[in-house]
Amino acid sequence: MEFRKWIGREVEMIYEDAKGSLSRRLVRVEGFSGKHLKAFDLAKRQPRTFRTDGILALMPPAAQSEQGVHGPPPFASISASPRGRPSRGFSF
To answer: Whole-model pTM above 0.85?
Structure first.
């Protein structure tokens, strides 16, 4: 995945952590170094570092609401089974 093109931009990211939990985040990409992506999480208002192998998708953010509120769309964190399948149903 090409990360450098997103530097300085706000993006929606689908991320899988080391425990297999998925999350959807709205971040501003600050930089890329080796196996890590540095970003500012707009919903949590904190800098974050993400493993690049856990980033499943990066995309331009969905249209913002009329109020201009930052934050990802509602998304329930889930855990993946050892076979990589969700342990319970979910939708975006």
So the answer is: no
CA–CA distances in Å: residue 46 to residues 3, 27, 56, 80 = 20, 10, 21, 26
Give the phi and the psi of residue 4 in degrees, each rounded to 5: -60, -30
Q: With a cut of 90, say whether residue 44 has pLDDT above it.
A: yes
Read off φ and ψ for residue 23, nearest 5 degrees.
Answer: -145, 155
Residues 6+ apart with CB under 8 A from 15: 22, 23, 24, 25, 50, 54, 55, 56
**Position with higher pLDDT, 75 vs 57:** 57
Q: Which residues contact 5 (CB under 8 A, 6 or more apart)?
A: none
